[in-house]
Design a protein that fits this description.
By secondary structure, this protein is an alpha/beta fold. It contains 20 helices and 18 strands. The strands form 4 sheets. Strands 5-6-7-3-8-9 form a 6-stranded mixed sheet, sandwiched between helices. Strands 14-15-16-12-17-18 form a 6-stranded mixed sheet, with helices on both faces. The two termini are 56 Å apart.
Length: 668
């Protein structure tokens, strides 16, 4: 059954025509990825589905009582409510029932009148039955599970929303939406504010989602893993392809070849017909035939040649000066934010010319802090940062986009950053970043997010550097722009250090992986497959530190550690053995505690189920004292479940962390 049916839809914004005659059927189990260049109308299509916008033509039919949930690219700031409460508020009816039940419980304790007590017990019984039917008793645990998957620690869930950045608020909005479990889930760039592990978790969650999914994403791996349909918006039309992104690319290539052949064949027929018209236009005996052919040409639905469909645009970063072999060295780095110690003096890192480094690690491990230290934009409390010979650093992060002057034109914005460049050179640079012709006169304030990202990158490179430090450079870039950036990074002769949630970019660009965890940076001098082999990570599933999926590429056969003297190697092995023994003693004590906690959790869950079952029995409410006792047992069991669940997660995390450290220490 179709949940949403789109038929013959057209939409324009002012003078800009987005698309026409769009048809699409969205049913349960269908996962549709909408792709296309920036400005093609992808977000507009989502807003048409929700009803936030109305089509200029055509119809959008929604099934009766269908629930549509929409994750927008931007969310409003919020405060005054905890993270967990904000997510639970998305449960709608269930959350409202629970609030009313808690209120009745308070009233039951104070009720003195028998009639009032009976009315309260009747209402509580009805609400409790409805709450259980809607799965309310598992709601809190499910909300915590979703938040944990998106990178929130247990302590974060009771913090006020106002303490978090916009990116973390976006994660809360996503968690709230996933808990709501709508019939149709609309996601606009859901991976933009997620780290690799959270992207992997979200992928697994959506893989078993029972409803329909419509997503806009520029993450090719994410589309491959989630979508079973791809709809391309291009040149005002929507074309649907069956399969994932890889299938779409293959089918589109085949379709373009067919269109090109059809266009050439049609042009030959048109030329033949036109030649007949020109030859016999003034011959009376052929007048009827000429007129017939003229009308046929006027009625002809011409096939557009795909050759004119899109230009292949490439750019290269301006050639930077050549640096020395050693580009940068960090030694004994200490960094803290107030009481939060990120690096305690154990951070050492050395990078060499030509390395393309991807920083990976769990959320909160300090990847962005390390990148800022490398770029020289963040002071440290201890240790040394030493640049190599002739090294010039450029740093890119999202604040460069926020710093753009919205009143400037594209050209003037670049001119302000590079006043010594000639007009010709500035136009060449802007053209390299896909700004050509009249596009350089567009106001910055009306640029799309992807266009602003490209402009910020152009400003960054107006003065060529040979060490690029890039924090999420592909955010807001469409797939074509990502391809262009990827090619440019691969051709860049200097050194690159990047943080990205785009797994495709990591696999395509990085030739060195640096794992950031526990205040250290471990270098793996190879691509991700090399790193996965060294770490014993299954690259087809979530790994010990980060999750990713990958396709086979060549493995760089190098040692993960530099060669050491025999004495140094023996000392290292002795130290690692002592650390493993200490961790073994620690986990040996933790495991019985974990088993005991799980046994207590099972008992509390059994108690909760028993009291819930008894409270669902209408005959119980004849005895007010029994109802009070059952409510107290029910609430006490729920409190124990929350406490024991938190303890179980803490113990499991400590054991996992100890085993992960052991795996790193044991790596050859």
């Amino acid at each position: 059954m179709s949940l949403v049916t789109i038929a013959g839809v057209a939409k324009s914004h002012a003078a800009q025509h987005l698309f026409r005659d769009v048809g699409l059927m969205i049913s349960a189990g269908r996962r549709v990825a909408i792709v296309g260049p920036n400005g093609a109308g992808k977000t507009t299509m989502l807003e048409l589905i929700t009803g936030d916008q109305e089509p200029d033509a055509g119809t959008i039919t929604r099934a009766r009582d269908v629930v549509i949930g929409y994750l927008r690219q931007e969310v409003a700031e919020s405060h005054g409510r905890t993270v967990l409460a904000e997510v639970l508020a998305g449960a709608g009816e269930v959350s409202g029932i629970e609030r009313r039940m808690r209120h009745i419980e308070s009233e039951l304790e104070e009720a003195a009148d028998e009639e009032e007590l009976h009315e309260l017990m009747d209402e509580y019984g009805r609400l409790q039955h409805r709450f259980e039917a809607l799965g309310g008793y598992g709601l809190g645990a499910e909300a915590r599970r979703i938040l944990a998957g998106l990178g929130f620690a247990d302590a974060d869930m009771d913090r006020d929303m106002g303490e978090f950045s916009g990116g973390w608020m976006m994660r809360v909005a996503l968690a709230r939406l996933l808990l709501q479990n709508p019939d149709v889930l609309l996601l606009d760039e859901p991976t933009n504010h997620l780290d690799l592990a959270s992207v992997e978790w979200l992928t697994g969650f959506l893989a078993v989602y029972a409803g329909a999914i419509v997503l806009v994403s520029h993450d090719r791996d994410f589309i491959n893993e989630v979508a079973n349909r791809v709809v391309e918006l291009h040149d005002g039309r929507a074309t649907e392809y069956v399969g994932d992104y890889a299938d779409f690319v293959e089918q589109r290539t085949e379709r373009m070849l067919q269109l090109e052949a059809a266009a050439k064949n049609q042009q030959r027929k048109i030329a033949h017909t036109q030649a007949f018209i020109d030859r016999f236009r003034y011959k009376a005996s052929k007048a009827r035939q000429v007129q017939s052919r003229v009308k046929a040409l006027e009625r002809l639905d011409r096939v557009a040649s795909p050759a004119a469909r899109a230009k292949s645009v490439k750019f290269r970063f301006p050639a930077p000066p050549r640096s020395g072999r050693t580009v940068i060295t960090l030694t004994d780095i200490e960094k803290r934010y107030d009481d939060n110690v990120v690096y305690d003096g154990d951070l050492d890192l050395q990078l060499e010319r030509g390395q393309r480094v991807a920083l990976i690690g769990p959320n909160g491990a300090g990847k962005s802090t390390l990148l800022k230290i490398l770029a020289g934009v963040l002071e440290v409390e201890g240790g040394t940062r030493e640049l190599g010979s002739n090294v010039r650093v450029a740093y890119f992060a999202q604040h460069q986009i926020e710093a753009l002057n919205p009143d400037n034109t594209v050209f003037n914005e670049l001119n302000d950053a590079a006043p010594m460049m000639s007009t010709t050179d500035m136009r060449k640079l802007l053209g390299a970043f896909l700004f050509s012709g009249q596009a350089v006169e567009k106001q910055v304030g009306i640029l799309s997010g992807g266009e602003q990202t490209r402009l910020a990158l152009a400003k960054l490179l107006a003065d060529p550097a040979n060490l690029l430090c890039l924090d999420e450079p592909t955010n807001h870039l469409d797939i074509q722009s990502r391809d262009v950036l990827e090619d440019a990074l691969n051709a860049f002769p200097g050194t690159i250090v990047l943080i990205t949630h785009d797994r495709y970019l990591i696999r395509s660009v990085a030739n060195v992986i640096v794992e950031v965890n526990d205040g250290r940076a471990t270098v793996y001098p190879g691509d991700f497959e090399y790193y996965a082999a060294k770490r014993g990570v299954d690259i087809e599933t979530r790994g010990a530190v980060e999750g990713t999926r990958s396709t086979p590429r060549g493995v760089v056969a190098k040692e993960a550690r530099p060669r050491q003297s025999a004495r140094a190697a023996a000392e290292r092995k002795r130290r690692e053995a002592e650390e493993r023994n200490a961790r073994h003693r620690l986990t040996r004590g933790l495991r019985p505690a974990l088993e005991s906690t799980r046994a207590g959790l099972a008992a509390a869950q059994s108690e909760l189920s028993e009291t819930a079952e008894r409270l669902a029995d209408p005959s119980v409410y004849a005895d007010g004292g029994l109802v009070r006792a059952l409510v107290e047992r029910h609430n006490a069991a729920r409190d124990r479940i929350d406490a024991l669940g938190a303890e179980e997660r803490r113990l499991a995390a400590e054991i996992e962390a100890a085993e992960a450290r052991d795996a790193v220490g044991a790596a050859p």
